[in-house]
Design a protein that fits this description.
By secondary structure, this protein is of the alpha/beta class. The protein has 11 helices and 6 strands.
Length: about 220
């Protein structure tokens, strides 16, 4: 596979608009915990990027018990399926795969929830589209740590000169830099645009369909 172009994708804010589901699951949990707080989407957006535990801690503004966290995950699983694809995501992924690109998903979302959401949204197509789909697991360090993906890239015999990392946040940009991959950051996601631009992504796009044009033109 060494000379094949490959693209690693973030999920939340990049492929799927999960913000509404995250907000609903979080607010439902707060209600059940008798916490007098109801977050708006714009507030929840600032919590996303470093995994569910950090998101939940930011929302509570305190440490939490495992039972509280388990309740949040249970509620989020209920609400996450309302999440739609962003514009041009599915057709672009299908086109990229048809041209022989190797596609992967790397997310800080808890892996069990990620797998269920992927299966629900891709309706079986994920098995054909992606060679690897991974969320947060205890044995895997969260991005931007490059350990897991470096090992995966090596095991698949991929050449990093042919690789791209596509996401929406500063965490994804740092992940790309730590992996020595070209970064594609989407403007429509949940990341802070100024922070991202100040850190100079390789490409900053407003439409997911531009991913295909970039990898075709700038991949080695």
């Amino acid at each position: 596979m060494k000379n094949n172009k490959f693209i690693i994708f973030d999920l939340d804010g990049t492929l799927i608009d999960t913000l509404e589901g995250i907000k609903d699951g979080l607010n439902l949990t707060l209600k059940e915990l008798n916490i007098d707080k109801c977050y708006l989407k714009e507030e929840v957006k600032t919590f996303i990027g470093n995994g569910a535990r950090i998101l939940f801690k930011k929302a509570l503004n305190r440490e939490f018990s495992e039972s509280e966290y388990s309740l949040y995950l249970k509620n989020y699983e209920k609400t996450q399926y309302i999440s739609p694809f962003f514009n041009n995501v599915l057709n672009t992924l299908i086109s990229l795969k048809s041209k022989g690109y190797i596609l992967l998903i790397n997310s800080n979302k808890p892996d069990e929830l990620l797998q269920k959401l992927i299966k629900n949204k891709f309706n079986g197509q994920e098995k054909e589209l992606f060679i690897d789909i991974k969320g947060e697991r205890k044995e895997i360090k969260r991005k931007p740590d490059p350990t897991y993906l470096n090992e995966l890239i090596k095991s698949l015999d991929l050449n990093k000169e042919n690789g791209f990392y596509c996401g929406d946040s500063i965490v994804d940009l740092k992940a790309a830099n730590n992996l020595n991959l070209k970064s594609i950051i989407v403007s429509y996601g949940y990341g802070d645009k100024n922070e991202i631009l100040n850190n100079h992504p390789s490409f900053f796009i407003d439409d997911f369909s531009k991913v295909e044009e970039i990898v075709e033109r700038y991949g080695k």
